[in-house]
Every structure is written in C-alpha cells, then in structure tokens.
C-alpha cells in the first residue's frame, strides 16, 4: 500500500499532466484518510480553482493555511482564490501574510498593491477617509510609482484636514504625471491653506504652462499673488482666468476684487458691469459693482448697487457690511450703525465692520462705545491698522494724548502707507511745537469745493498735491475750497473753511481737473467733495506754478526752523545736491518700488566733479544708507538741528525743495519738493525700464512712474 507522500506525488503527476479527474479522486482519498492534510488541501484547492470551482476551492485552501501557516505559497494561493471570489479584503490579508513570511516575494507584493487600492477606494467612497488614507499609504510603500494612490491619497488627506500630507501626496502625483493639472491644483490649495504661498505658486506655474487656458489655475494664482502683495501680477492672473472662461461670473468677481486691491477701481467697475450683463441677478456682482463705485467715490450709485445686492441676498453679511461701511464713510452714522449691527450679528468675527461701527459711534459723539468697538476689533485681529487708528482717535477725543500717540505709532508701523495715522500723529505733536495757528475762516458764501479726505488719502506729498491742485481750481473758478484739519494749517498757516454740509463725492478723474485749472468749471464739479491722489500729469498745473508754490510757504516757528536748516546747508558749500532715498513704507509691493543706491552713486560720480563746491544732503528714513555715500560726506536732517515734532520729515522736504540738483525717489514726497523748488537746475528720477536715473521736468509728466 502506498504511503500518503507517494499517493500525493502520484496525484500531483496526474494534475500536472492534465488528468484532473484522476488527480481530484486521489486528493479526495488522501483527505478522507487524513482530513485537513496541508499539502493535499492546498493541491485540491488549486485544482478546484483551476477548473472553475473557486467557491469550493476556498475551504480547502483555508485548511491548508490552518495546517501549515508558515507556508508563503499557501497564503499566496488562498489570496488568489479570495480575489477571484471578490473577497478583496481577505485576499489582501493573505498576501500581507505571504510578505510577512517572505518579504521579498515579488508576486505577493505585485498583487497586494492593487488590492489595497481597491480597498482604499471603497473606504474613500463610503466616507471612511482615515482607513482610505492608511491604505493608500500602504499602496505607495509597495508601489511608489502608483499615480492613482498618490492622488487619491492626497484627496483623502485633504478631507481629513491633514494638509501637510495632502500637499506631499499631491506633489508626488504631479511628479509622477506632470500633465495632471488636478494634482497641481490640489497641492497649491493645500499649501495655500498651510500659508506656504510661494510654494503654492510654484505648484501652479507648470500647470498654466501646460494649459494656458486653465481658468481655475489662473484664478488660484490671482488669489495667491494678492496674498504676497503682488497686486499687478494678481490682476494679470485674474485677467488670464477670465480670458479662459469669459462667461464665468465667479472669475469676473475675483478679477474685480483683485483690481480693487490693486487700487484700480475703474477697471473693476468695468468688469463688474460686464459680469452683470451676463447675469443681472448675481448678488456677488452687484456687491463688486458697489465696492468699485465706492472706491471711485460715486457713493449714491454705490448705495443703489448694494441695495440691489441686499434684495437679491437678504441678510448676507458681506453685503450688509459693505453697505454699512459705505454709509459710515458718507457720514450716515445712524444708517451705518443699523447695517453694521445686522452684519455683525451674522459675522461677529469681522474686525473691519467693528471698526466701521466704532467710527459711526464716534461721529455720533459716543466715544465710549467707539472705544469698545475698537477693542473688540483688535481682539479679533491684533494689530489691525484701522482698529489702532480708531482706538487712537477715541483716546485723543478723551484727552489721553500720550496713549493716542502710541496707538498712532503702532498703526503707522503696521500700515505706513495709510495717511490717517501719519496725519493725526503729526497734528497732535505739531500743535504743541508751533503753538496757535490762524483759525479756519468762516465760509464766504461762494460756490463750494470740498476735499474732505485730505489727511487720509495718502501722506505728505499726496496731501500737498490734493490741496494745491484743488485750491488753484477753486480760485480759478470763483469757488471756495473747504478742508478738514490737516497738517498744512500748522506748517503753512492755511486757513480754509472747514467742510460744511456733506457734498456729493466726485473722483478727480470725473471732475475735469485740467478744465478747472483753465477756469472752465464743469457743471458736475461744482458743489462736490473731490477725492483722489492727484498723481497724474502735472502739465496742466504748470501755468500756475507760482501760485502753487506760494501756498506752501512755511510760517512762524516752522519758517524759523526752515531758514536755520537752509543756512546750515549753505554754510557747508555753494551748490546744494539733494538725494531722496525712501525705504520705510516702500518695497512692500510692486507699486512702491525701491531704486538701488547704485543708480544714485553712478549719477553722483558723473556730476559731482562738475559742480562748484558741492554739498550733499541725504533725505531718507533710513539714515544707515549714509555709509554708502560716505565719500561725499552727506548731511542728514539730524545734522541741521532737532527735528520738528510731528513733522520730522519736514527738513528733508524743505532741503529737497531748495537744492539746485535733486535726485528723487519714485515718491510723491520728493516729486512735490521738486515742484516747489524755485532754484532747481537739474532733476533726476529713477527709471525701472532704463535701470538708472534719468532727467525729468517735475512740471511736465506723471508724479509717479510705473
């Protein structure tokens, strides 16, 4: 009688030779004699599976594994049968067991990866994201080139809020398939949420290179560029998004927002109107239209647009907040307070709305409530510039000047380009330094022209341009200019009447300044509050340069300081050369750019030897730069006496306005000094295109270069 081993060998010979009936009979007899025999169970299971009887095969393979759990082959083949029966989880478990017993088992690894991926997809589809994420990671450990596992793993990680993991896996997916735009966008989205803005942009660059018509990528780039303060680049990206999908009103809303941030309200206005021609019932587009109209100070039209947005989307916090802030700026304190309270009931974390509510309270004389609003805004957004300004105004109103100054200083440090903090600090300190100044004149009864934003829209140079242009316009047309309290009253003894009843707002581009300067008053300029920075072409103002200069003549103690500073310079040489290097609030975005000191040094090296006993004055908010100019022994403001409290910049501006040779920054500060300079022989400005200083006529060209 044959032994079990001999019988099993004979059966296997039949099996290999294709005599499956004989083999099955012998396997069966062995198992009758020795139930659960591992070898016979394994071979019987294989035979049944090979002859289309997988369901019958599985119990035999289970028995084989139970009889000899240390056999990698038994686990491997059981997994194959389980997989054929659709039992993917069991198959994966069998193949994992194979790999535990034999880690280098190639077939088990090859079969396990797709099985795990199927399990991961099932888990993902059922919402079991944690299980899916773990399974995708195991797939990638087995098969690092598995693109679906990398991308789907990124999606699972994103759903779990595991942003670092999502970014890493999306980056892997993009590397495995550089044409997979969804992977690039997923990585960018995760990195943006992590605050990794530059890496998010880097993820999107290849995507738009591969498919320039991919509107979604351009739209994301628009947001990211704005977050980096790259306003011009953000607008370009927004335009590319709209070009890719011209009828997508969501992209038009985003482009309008980018243009608003870039201080291009008129293009934003055009974009919003274009969007409304496509979808007149879009609340978002009416909101964008209202914001753009507000930015060009068409306040009545802005109010109508925001009313429409509110009707389309009643109770929308964004619409209520924008409308409330508009009403506050228009002086409608009660209406503003009502709208802002509704907005804050829906979104109590909106710091800007708390500030606007506080300003409305301050307009009504309720400093205590305004102070509470400021504190709440600053708790929500520590360091919020508008919150610091409101808090400073409240403390100033309450007589706490020292605290107010500290708050204004913090606001200036946080947002040096905002004129309000600069102006309020300057006036608070200057009043102490220069004493009494002439009180504002009483209104004469002439036609009114107002500039109520003077002191808020821009800093010193902008304020001189705003006041000077509009004062000349008013005089040329028999009107009277009204101004709020501003630094010019203290420095130059200007005594214009304070603003009377609010006038309709009008942007400088809409009021026809060149015609006004010619004495041709336009109907729509009379009786308006004109708003703008007045940094355009100075040529229309040139015929009135004498009057413009006369307006800005220092008075009293300021005049004495100015004379002493100029005498100090004249005592050092015969030819005054002045350079302006603005740093503190420049270089933060692509609009306010910094020219290298090397451009100025190149000009000095060429010009200095040709001058008669030259002396160099360096006007700068970064005195450490004087070391670069050491060979010319530059004079700084501090060398000419103590600074004027609140107007520490005044000596710089004054010497720039009296030097024979002036090299400006791309800044209204030094350009206005050049405009006021009666002794000017040569004026130069930085030019980015030519990468050097170039001669310019301050009375014939734009105040700022792009």
From TrEMBL:
Alphabetical UniProt keywords: Glycosyltransferase, Plasmid, TPR repeat, Transferase
Q: Does the keyword Glycosyltransferase apply?
A: yes
Keyword Glycosyltransferase annotated: yes
Q: Name one GO biological process term.
A: protein O-linked glycosylation
For molecular function, the Gene Ontology terms on record are: protein O-acetylglucosaminyltransferase activity
Q: Where are the TPR repeats?
A: 113-146
Gene3D superfamilies with a match to the protein in the record: 3.40.50.11350, Tetratricopeptide repeat domain
What InterPro entries does the annotation carry? OGT, TPR-like_helical_dom_sf, TPR_rpt
Entry protein name: Alpha-1,2-fucosyltransferase
This chain's source organism reads Azospirillum argentinense
């Amino acid at each position: 009688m044959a032994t079990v081993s001999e019988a099993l060998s004979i059966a296997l010979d039949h099996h290999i030779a294709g005599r499956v009936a004989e083999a099955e009979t012998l396997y069966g007899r062995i198992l009758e004699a020795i139930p659960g025999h591992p070898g016979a169970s394994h071979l019987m299971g294989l035979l049944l599976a090979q002859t289309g009887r997988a369901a019958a095969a599985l119990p035999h393979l289970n028995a084989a594994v139970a009889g000899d759990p240390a056999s990698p082959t038994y686990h491997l083949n059981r997994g194959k049968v389980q997989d054929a029966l659709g039992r993917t989880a069991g198959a994966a478990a069998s193949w994992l067991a194979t790999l535990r017993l034999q880690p280098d088992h190639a077939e088990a690894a090859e079969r396990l990866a797709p099985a795990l991926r199927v399990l991961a997809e099932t888990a993902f589809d059922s919402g079991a994201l944690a299980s899916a994420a773990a399974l995708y990671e195991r797939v990638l450990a087995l098969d690092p080139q598995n693109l679906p596992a990398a991308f789907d793993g990124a999606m699972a990680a994103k759903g779990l809020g595991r942003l670092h993991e999502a970014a890493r896996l999306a980056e892997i997916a993009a590397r495995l398939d550089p044409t997979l735009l969804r992977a690039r966008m997923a990585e960018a989205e995760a990195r943006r949420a992590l605050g990794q803005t530059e890496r998010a942009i880097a993820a999107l660059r290849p995507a738009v290179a591969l498919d320039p018509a991919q509107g979604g990528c351009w739209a994301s780039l628009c947001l990211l560029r704005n977050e980096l303060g790259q306003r011009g680049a953000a607008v370009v990206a927004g335009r590319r998004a709209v070009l890719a999908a011209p009828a997508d009103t969501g992209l038009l809303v985003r482009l309008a927002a980018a243009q608003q941030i870039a201080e291009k309200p008129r293009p934003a206005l055009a974009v919003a109107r274009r969007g409304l021609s496509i979808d007149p019932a879009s609340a978002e587009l009416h909101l964008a239209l209202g914001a753009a109209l507000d930015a060009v100070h068409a306040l009545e039209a802005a109010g109508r647009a925001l009313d429409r947005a509110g009707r389309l989307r009643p109770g929308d916090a964004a619409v209520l907040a924008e409308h409330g802030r508009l009403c506050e700026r228009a002086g409608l304190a009660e209406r503003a307070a009502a709208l802002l309270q509704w907005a804050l009931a829906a979104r109590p974390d909106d710091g800007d709305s708390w500030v606007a509510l506080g300003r409305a309270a301050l307009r009504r004389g309720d400093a205590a409530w305004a102070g509470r609003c400021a504190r709440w805004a600053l708790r929500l957004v520590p360091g919020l510039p508008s919150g610091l300004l409101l808090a400073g105004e409240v403390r100033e109103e309450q007589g706490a000047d020292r605290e107010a100054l500290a708050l204004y200083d913090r606001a200036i440090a946080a947002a040096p380009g905002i004129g309000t903090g600069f102006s309020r600090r300057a006036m608070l300190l200057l009043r102490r330094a220069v004493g009494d100044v002439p009180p504002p004149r009483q209104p004469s009864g002439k036609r009114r022209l107002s500039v109520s934003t003077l002191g808020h829209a821009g800093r010193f140079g902008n304020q001189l341009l705003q006041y000077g242009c509009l004062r000349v316009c008013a005089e040329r047309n028999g009107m009277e200019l009204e101004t709020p309290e501003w630094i010019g009253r203290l420095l130059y003894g200007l005594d214009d009447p304070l603003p009377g009843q609010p006038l309709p707002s009008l942007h400088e581009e809409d009021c026809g300044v060149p015609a006004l300067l010619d004495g041709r008053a336009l109907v729509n300029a009379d009786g308006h509050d004109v708003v703008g920075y007045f940094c355009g072409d100075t040529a229309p103002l040139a015929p009135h340069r004498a009057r413009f200069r006369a307006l800005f003549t220092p008075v009293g103690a300021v005049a004495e300081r100015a004379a002493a500073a100029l005498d100090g310079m004249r005592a050092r040489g015969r030819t005054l050369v002045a350079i302006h290097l603005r740093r503190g609030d420049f270089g933060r975005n692509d609009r306010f750019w910094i020219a290298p000191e090397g451009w100025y040094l190149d000009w000095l090296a060429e010009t200095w030897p040709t001058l008669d006993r030259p002396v160099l004055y360096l006007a700068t908010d970064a005195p450490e730069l004087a070391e670069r100019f050491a060979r010319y022994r530059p004079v700084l403001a501090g060398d000419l006496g103590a600074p004027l409290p609140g107007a520490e910049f005044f000596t710089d501006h004054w010497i720039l306005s009296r030097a024979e040779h002036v090299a400006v920054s791309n800044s209204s500060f030094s350009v206005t000094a050049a405009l006021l300079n009666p002794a000017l022989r040569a004026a130069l400005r930085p030019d980015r295109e030519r990468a050097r200083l170039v001669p310019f006529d301050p009375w014939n060209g734009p105040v700022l270069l792009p």
